[in-house]
Write a structure and sequence with these properties.
The chain has 258 residues and is an alpha/beta fold. Helix content is 36%, strand content 19%. Strand 3, helix 3 and strand 4 form a beta-alpha-beta unit.
């Protein structure tokens, strides 16, 4: 039995078992802990996860055909398959506020949404290992000064150490995607407080990068009429030139003028 890949779900099933093993081995948290796999498909990662006695593995799958396959061919998963949409799951209720690692070959069409959900639940998710479109992986791992540095780069790097682990070619998937993939690891950086108004920080990041071609003086003036009292060096920069720490300082400086 094979599961038919569904374009609407962004399914590209990994066939290379060595790569699957390497992805699972990239989880670095020790001791017994909970692991949630998103979109297991036919279970190529799942089988390696189940070999790790230190993991309490649960999977979430939206595709009924994949769920049927997993129940039939990986019976040891019984009771640990959640049929549903990860993006609409209440993770706090599912794990009773207990931390867990997240892993998966994330569908390209929702990978950014998955990462935003991670941010919303970052106190529960100290570690993420995921396969992404290579372009997205490079974007979230890059630092200030790069044209690909953007909203997700800053927000993720504020809370996580983000590592680009390795590139994955198209020919190891069925069906092969039209782009290369990459595996990344996010590990909580220990920060529990930004040291600024987090809601304002997020708003400034989004506003700045939504007008990324403009100098910051133009994109942030809606936050305070006294914006011209801010550091002139900051005002004449574009958002991709500022580090996380510089955005934190900018947030505090703007709040003082509000």
């Amino acid at each position: 039995m094979q599961v038919r890949a569904k374009k609407g779900l962004g399914q590209h099933f990994l066939r290379d078992h060595q790569i699957a093993s390497d992805i699972v081995d990239a989880l670095v948290m020790g001791d017994r802990h909970k692991v949630l796999e998103v979109g297991p498909g036919m279970g190529v990662l799942t089988r390696f996860l189940l070999q790790k006695s230190e993991f309490e593995t649960t999977v979430v799958e939206i595709d009924r055909e994949s769920v049927s396959y997993l129940k039939t061919y990986i019976p040891e998963l019984n009771g640990r398959i959640i049929e549903g949409d990860f993006l609409h799951m209440d993770l706090r209720k599912l794990y009773s506020e207990e931390p867990f690692s997240l892993i998966g070959n994330f569908p390209y069409n929702i990978s950014s949404q998955i990462l935003f959900k991670v941010l919303d639940n970052r106190d529960l998710i100290p570690e993420v290992v995921g396969m992404l479109q290579k372009e997205v992986a490079e974007r979230i791992c890059t630092g200030p000064g790069s044209k690909t540095y953007g909203i997700l780069s800053v927000l993720l790097q504020a809370w996580y150490k983000v590592e680009y682990l390795f590139t994955v070619n198209e020919d190891v998937f069925d069906p092969p995607p039209k782009v290369k993939s990459a595996v990344v690891r996010l590990t909580a950086n220990g920060r529990t407080n930004l040291g600024c108004n987090e809601k304002l920080f997020n708003a400034i990041i989004k506003q700045s990068f939504n007008q990324r071609r403009k100098m910051l003086r133009n994109s942030i003036k809606s936050f305070t009429p006294r914006y011209d009292e801010l550091d002139i060096k900051v005002l004449t920069n574009r958002p991709e030139q500022l580090s996380v720490e510089e955005f934190i300082k900018l947030t505090n400086d703007i709040e003082k003028l509000m």
